[in-house]
Amino acid sequence: MSEKTIYQHLQEQGVSRRDFLKLCGMLVGAMGISVPPLESADFLFQSDGVDQRMVQRVAKALESKTRAPVIWLEFQDCAGCTEALTRSQSPTLIDLVLNSISVEYHETLTAAAGFQTEANKEAIMQAYHGQYVLVVEGSIPTAAGGAYCTIGGRSAVDLLEEAAEGAAAIIATGNCSAFGGLPKAAPNPTGAKGVWEIIKDKPVVNIPGCPAIPEVFTGTLAHFLIFGNLPELDDLNRPMTFYGKTVHDRCLRRPFYDAGKFAMSFDDQGAKEGWCLYKLGCKGPTTYNACASIKWDAGLSFPVQSGHPCLGCSEPDFWDGGGFYQGQSAPLNPPGMVSVGTAVGAGAVIGAVMAANNASQKKRATAAGNETYREDKKEA
Amino acid sequence: MNWNEILEFSRGALFNVALIFFVAGMVYRLVRVLLLGWSRDRAPAAGSKVGGVAKSFLKGILIWPFIPWVKRTFSKNPIIYLAGGLFHLGLFAAIFLGTPHMLVWKSLLGFGWRTLPVPIVDWLSAGAILAMIVLLINRRINPVLKLISGPAEYLSWLVVFLPMVSGYMMTHHMFFRYEVLFSLHMIAVDVLLIWIPLSRISHFMFYFFSRTIHGLEFGKRAVTP
Q1: DSSP state, A77?
Q2: CATH topology of domain A245-358
Q3: Is B188 a member of any domain?
Q4: Which CATH superfamily groups domain A68-243?
């Protein structure tokens, strides 16, 4: 680790001033930021849809800041978020984040293995205590004393707590590390948890998704590395810039939803015409993510565009949120025939008992009434 | 507890409890009415009971409500006739012919059906909501209605109004985030399900019950109107 600034480091790699400024512009775009408050003369600073004042701010930050180390831990994951990241649409940006901003420890990408890498991680955590960014991929098992996931003989909980202790901020990438994801699906045998359920004393940013959208992850990481603070978050600790709107809000099939034109099956005429997939179980209306605007593979497509309903992968417990192909309005686990039958039986029995009670009361009242009538008659 | 958890609860556990209570409650109500006791009818039948029931339903639901001048309700109180009709029409359109609701029925019954386009259900629902407001004002203004209206009547109005208005807001993504409106709508529906057996909204079942009984009686005596 050198104490050179990020810009100096890039210069050493042969990045020209022109390319550097281009990179800054790309970063501004990726982070989705602008200079507040917006003024009427803002268009003067706009170039290619990017605010040039912001680019200069980013450039200044990169010229003055030293590289910040990133430690990337993987627990109960599929490495899908890493896979997605390494196949991102903006390779220069990823290169900046992964190489220039220095990922010091990454179980999938690190070439070295075994004790050396572990020793390197220890050294980095000590040298940059309180400064490094901790990225977590995969959920953390808590059942059986954390025995379901161990690395180098230590449990995931143990490793996470140790690494989180000296972290400046934690980024949980993917639904697993954010909310528990697939490992947490009922009955959750491993007692899987998201990072923010375990680490309470550090800022945790959640970048949920399955996988997380690479540009969303890099944009958020870049924001922290450049400005030294976290972007505005929602109540689930997700960056508002990317998770402020639902997939439904920005869906290209939205006009068909409004017009009431729905595909009824995956191969009917409606599906071929590109109609709304709501009836086929789309979770777009309650799913906050940038899929519909950033998309995947260089803006090529995203699930709904490709003809598959949204699964809601950026929301907590999406595996247990009802069937993937069941309409979202349908109840989660509707009561079965046994419960309904029991309810019918219970209602009938209680009704019959009450009615019998009523009948006997009526009988007694009638008898008493008759008795009184006879007595009155006798007296008369 | 965040809104996702509230939504999960109101769509899951709370809905199930409400539905079970609703089923048990309505069966209880029906059994109670059936076991009230029936007087023995010794007169020989003069006409067809089935015919009487058929006539009763045909006229009561399918024909008369749509010919205003044969209904005395219309000549006596056109507001109740029009607003009441509009309300029930919108309610039925939304519950049975709105896509999201059909999917609820499908998950409960195992089969679905074709639904109306969103804008049509939307306008009918808007009409129903407006009709409910008109009916409430009418209830407050009309001296007789005001006199016979107690807390239960206003509560019934509110318990029906909340799911309608939250559902409308949800379709239009108004004011709040979708999952917030979805949760509120589901909670309102769950409260409605619990309230129905306890209140006069149970007329949705007893209406058909009394139409059948009256049709039977009239048909048997050959005095169908």
Answers
A1: -
A2: Cytochrome-c3 Hydrogenase; Chain A, domain 2 (4.10.480)
A3: yes
A4: NADH:ubiquinone oxidoreductase-like, 20kDa subunit (3.40.50.700)
Tell if the CB–CB gap between B12 and A335 is shorter than 8 Å.
Answer: no
> Quick check: B91 and B204 in contact, CB under 8 A?
no
Asked whether the ipTM of the predicted complex exceeds the cut of 0.90, the reply is: no
The answer to whether the Cβ–Cβ distance between B100 and A351 falls below 8 Å is: no
Q: What is the pLDDT of residues A167-179, one digit of tens each?
A: 989 999 999 999 9
| Residue tagged 């998704």 (tokens) | A209
Parent domain of B188: 58-220
Is the Cβ–Cβ distance between B38 and A347 less than 8 Å? no
Give the predicted TM-score (pTM) of the model. 0.76
Looking at this protein, which amino acid is placed at residue B39?
Answer: S
Q: Is the CB of B25 less than 8 angstroms away from the CB of A347?
A: yes
A175 vs A217, B133, B224, CA distance in Å? 12, 45, 66
- Please report the pLDDT score of residue A94 as a whole number: 61
| Pick from A49-58, A297-306, B34-43: least confident | A49-58
**% of chain A at pLDDT higher than 70:** 90
pLDDT at B190: 93
Query: Domain total for chain B?
Result: 1
Between chains, do A351 and B182 touch, taking CB under 8 Å as contact? Answer: no
Q: Measuring CA to CA, which residue among B8, B114, B161, B203 is closest to residue A279?
A: B114
Residues of chain B with Cβ-Cβ distance to A279 below 8 Å are 99, 103
* Residue of A283, A329, A358 for testing the chain B interface, max B β-carbons within 10 Å: A329
Query: Is residue A43 pLDDT above 70, yes or no?
Result: no
Give the gap in angstroms from C-alpha A259 to the nearest C-alpha of chain B: 6
pLDDT above 90 (res A25): no
Q: For A354, which residue in chain B has the nearest alpha carbon?
A: B32
